[in-house]
Amino acid sequence: MEGKRVRLVGYTLRQLLCFVAVAEHGSITAAAEQLRVSPSAVSGAVDELERVLRTQLTVRRRAHGVTLTTSGHDVLRRARSLLDEAEDLESRARDTGDDLRGPFMVGSYHTLAPTVLAELLAAYTERHPGVDLDFVSGSQADLVDRLAGGELDLAVVYDVALPPTIQVHRLYQAAPQVVLPADHRLAQDEDQPLPLDLLASEPFILLDLPPSRENTMTLFDHAGITPQVRFRTTDYELTRSLVGRGLGYSILVQHPSSSLTWGGRPLTTRPLEPRPHPVGVCLAWDSNVRPSRRAEAMVDLARTLHGPAHGQRP
């Protein structure tokens, strides 16, 4: 059977590397410093790439640095993917064992970073010390955008409202629970489900971060209840601290092993009635960006830490 005929392209990996560096640093000079070449070499590489692709990728203004055109943003995403593929090819050919090397960037949803991400980072660093591992935390929407743009290799997110291009390996499921001050009148019988309507008149502290916010408010909508929102926060530990001070209750998915707030105030959690659907916590990647060996190694590690994979989302 005849193999697929491949036409040699006119651009080089070096040109792609220079273009990505310019896009990420916003200037020719900064890109040249990172790559340890002259600014004229970087500028010439980007010029030649634009000539070969027959499209303008950048707008260069002396006082304002470099910005990307619409075509530039599209090429940036594809260039990052090609460079990752090239690096992965070299790594796969060179590695004779589990000696992984190279950069690896992981993202995490804000509330999952202290627990899930920290555990993964510690175990991964011990298993693969040669990898240049780094991380960022952010909103779910920001992490999805960064995955699509090739800025992140993997992200720890909730399996909620993810676009169809995102594939996941589920780590575990967690159900939202009520968080109360330990001395609250409803804090007794903590193993027993607490009917949501008993909280209707209580002051509510909302963790105002998507998708946590939408998931929580859906619980109230389905129960026909309008919560008495007293405070809105975007900080998980602040939410718990406000509850610990007796300023209201909250509904949270993540629950630390300690029942104390940072200020040492005791909290109690109770399951909800009706029982809410559990929320999946997962490792996610964009299907348009082929996972590197470093990413595959983290998924394998997650299988070890959290059991077998639940596969891709239907």
Automatic annotation (TrEMBL):
The keyword Cytoplasm does not apply. Gene3D superfamilies: Periplasmic binding protein-like II, Winged helix-like DNA-binding domain superfamily/Winged helix DNA-binding domain. Keywords: DNA-binding, Transcription, Transcription regulation. Residues 11-69 form the HTH lysR-type domain. It holds the Pfam family HTH_1. Belongs to the LysR transcriptional regulatory family. This is LysR substrate-binding domain-containing protein. It comes from Kocuria oceani.
